[in-house]
Recover the amino acids of this structure.
């Protein structure tokens, strides 16, 4: 992750919040909103076919530069064999311009696809739902045209790499990997960086699930770090990047049907007084029973919920089960991310990103009423899955692969990678227009004889 630096302004603003330390409730069987497990994406995006794009012309020097980049691409976590180095070398020697143009263009576009979007096919990216606009920001055909016109083949390809310093750290560690297994572990995580937006932005929250950690980043600096509890193996936390639009303090909790069926529905039917004592209110009955838990000490979301709309029902929230944060391995939740020191987390959100004063935030907490602090500018929350990160010493720190997501990526290394995102189609020959002729009328036709 980004190296953590002190952010004195934020800490000073939040100093009064230390007086509002949340109590450590004894409840240990918290059940928050369950993740909505979506089917994996098993097919790759269809390539963009550029039918009106003329095949670019390559010089031998430009093609030789491309060949040199390909021959060294293993250092980027990719595999030179994928980009037809032998065919490109043969085309350079052939002196056949049409062959050179085609082979070099094909190799460039496939390599650029893998550098920009990752080599791994979608079928091997388990529970990956990140949205990435790199294709719109850096379309490949203009990149190719610019690279050729400015003789900047190597530089144009290099600028497709993720800009985050952790990617550079993994690349440096790959160069000193001591075994094929270690090298593959690093490649897997370099790949995951390429599946994300090249630039994460200046303001974001990132949770690394295998590390059980959540960080708040502002201006490229980590200003807060929180332990996290993530989904257990049966309800794994997916990889996604929804926009955070606000933070809710003293939230209500609308129970999903699965949890109603697990027990609270029966409690409501048999002992409604007990259910009310736990803060539950409800309407309907049987299959139409709708249950909401009101704010309070027993609320499964604790004092805070980050508002981040997504089809998986994933969000960051507090928990009354504080003891879970003391465990080294913290995969206990139904998929959502429980956040340690949630009072300080939500206070930071309200003060830094919603423009509220610490006093306003403290009053909202103390009121016990549900209050929403909308952010001035929404920002992304990256729920990521890195099993290896730079250790700051030239190597990597490894984390357990909680959900077995590394193995499919490693297995994909032995197979063809993701196809080219853009294909230059051959220009169709011009269509010869038909000549209109007068209709020939026969005597039989006009006389009605068949």
């Amino acid at each position: 992750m980004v190296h953590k630096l002190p952010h004195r302004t934020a800490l000073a603003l939040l100093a009064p919040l230390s007086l509002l330390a949340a109590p450590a409730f004894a409840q240990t069987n918290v059940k928050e909103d369950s993740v909505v497990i979506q089917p994996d994406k098993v097919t790759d995006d269809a390539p963009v076919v550029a039918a009106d794009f003329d095949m670019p012309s390559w010089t031998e020097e430009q093609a030789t530069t491309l060949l040199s980049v390909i021959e060294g691409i293993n250092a980027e976590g990719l595999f030179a064999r994928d980009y037809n180095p032998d065919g490109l070398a043969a085309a350079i020697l052939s002196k056949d311009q049409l062959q050179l143009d085609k082979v070099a263009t094909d190799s460039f576009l496939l390599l650029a696809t893998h550098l920009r979007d990752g080599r791994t096919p979608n079928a091997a990216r388990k529970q990956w739902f990140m949205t990435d606009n790199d294709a719109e920001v850096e379309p490949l055909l203009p990149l190719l045209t610019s690279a050729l016109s400015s003789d900047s083949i190597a530089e144009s390809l290099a600028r497709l790499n993720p800009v985050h310093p952790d990617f550079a750290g993994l690349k440096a560690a790959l160069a000193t990997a001591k075994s094929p297994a270690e090298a593959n572990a690093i490649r897997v995580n370099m790949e995951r960086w390429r599946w994300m937006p090249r630039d994460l932005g200046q303001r974001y929250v990132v949770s690394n699930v295998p590390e059980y950690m959540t960080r708040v980043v502002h201006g490229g600096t980590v200003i807060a770090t929180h332990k996290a509890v993530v989904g257990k193996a049966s309800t794994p936390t997916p990889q996604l990047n929804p926009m955070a639009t606000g933070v809710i303090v003293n939230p209500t909790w609308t129970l999903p049907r699965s949890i109603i069926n697990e027990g609270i529905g029966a409690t409501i039917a048999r002992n409604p007084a007990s259910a009310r004592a736990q803060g539950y209110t409800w309407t309907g009955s049987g299959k139409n029973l709708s249950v909401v838990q009101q704010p309070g000490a027993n609320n499964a979301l604790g004092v805070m919920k980050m508002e981040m709309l997504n089809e998986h029902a994933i969000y960051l929230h507090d928990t009354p089960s504080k003891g879970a944060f003391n465990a080294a391995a913290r995969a206990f939740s139904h998929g959502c991310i429980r956040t340690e020191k949630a009072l300080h987390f939500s206070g930071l959100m309200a003060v830094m990103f919603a423009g509220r004063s610490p006093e306003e935030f403290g009053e909202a907490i103390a009121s016990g009423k549900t209050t929403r602090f909308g952010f001035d500018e929404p920002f992304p929350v990256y729920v990521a899955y890195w099993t290896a990160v730079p250790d700051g010493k030239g190597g990597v720190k490894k984390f357990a692969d909680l959900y077995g997501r590394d193995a499919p990526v490693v297995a994909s290394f032995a197979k063809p990678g993701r196809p080219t995102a853009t294909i230059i189609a051959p220009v169709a020959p011009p269509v010869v227009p038909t000549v209109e002729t007068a209709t020939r009328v026969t005597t039989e036709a006009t006389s009605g004889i068949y």
